[in-house]
Structure formats: C-alpha cells, structure tokens
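Our consortium's second objective concerns turning raw sequence data into structural hypotheses that experimental partners can test. To show how far this objective has progressed, the report includes one record in full. It was chosen at random from the queue rather than selected for favorable results. The single chain below, 185 residues long, was entered without modification.
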Amino acid sequence: MTALVASDAPAQATDRHASPRGVYAVRGALALLWAVGFAVVSGSLDAASIAFLVGYPVIDVTASLIDARAGRGTSTGNVQLVNAGLSLLAVIALALASADSTAAALHVFGAWATVSGLLQLTVALRRRTLGGQWAMILSGSISTLAGAAFNVMAAADKPTLGGLTGYAVLGGLFFIVSAVRSPRP
C-alpha cells in the first residue's frame, strides 16, 4: 500500500487545479437515487434488481472515467482508470453471477467493493492536500470493510441483498460531503 500512495510532485501540482467537486456531487446524488430504487426491488433477484446491481458499478465506471480525464497524466488519474476497468469487469461479473444466485451476486459485489474501496482510499490519500478528502478516506475504508462483510453475508443460509442499500446511502452521503468540502475550481 505504501507504494500505491507515494505521490509524485507533478501529479500533486496538476491535481490541485482539477477539483473533483462536480463529479463527487453527481456521483453522490446518483448513489442516493440508486439506493432508493434498489430498496424497492431488492427483495428478490429478478430482472429489476439485477439491472440495479449492474447499474451501481456503471455509475463508478462513468465517474472514474470523468475523474481520470480531468486528472489525465497524473497518478490519481491513472488510479481512476484502473478503477474504471475494475468496475467494468464488475458489471460483467455481476450480470453473470446474478444469473446464478443471490450469494454469487453478493460475493462479486463484495469483491468489487473491497478492491474499489482500496483504490478510492488511494486516490483520497493522494488528494488530501486538496482538502475535503477526509470523507473519501472514510468512504474508501468503509467500502473495503463492507466488501468483506458482503462476502460473509453471502455465506449465510439465506443471503439477502438488503445490505447493499445502506452501503450506497453511506457512500452517496460521503461523496456529497466531499463535494461540499472540496475547494471550488
């Protein structure tokens, strides 16, 4: 992890000029909307809940690509590109796993939440000099732990998808807090 968070001066200088404020605000709002919709359909693994399951990492792919473009050529931009690729793989894996079972879908979601949480934490630590990153540091840390919890939930006798709603609400709130606390461009 130390190698991942080592910063280089040109990347930090460039990142200071590219505030993630707008991306954070939109991503936070979308996560909250997703949570409301998913709460309605998460009772069973059907077409609607699968569409929502696949849709959550699509939000991450899009936000990561926008953020990477703003930070093109920087260390955080490169991490965002890796996160976008990981989230795209999660979209495909969730579609396949959802055809199998709730447990399989939770395992995939959990693995994705763990790794993307570590990447989010890496970006937040690199951006900490921008200000407003404490919420992203917490969010990345919690996502990493929640991913492990989803895998434990998947091993239960009757796993359910309900826990994903709280995960999205908390993530959405953290992104909105970061948007408010980030400096204006």
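The partners drew two points from this record. The two ends are 29 Å apart (CA to CA). Residues 20 and 67 are 7 Å apart (CA to CA). Both points have been shared with the crystallography group to help prioritize constructs.
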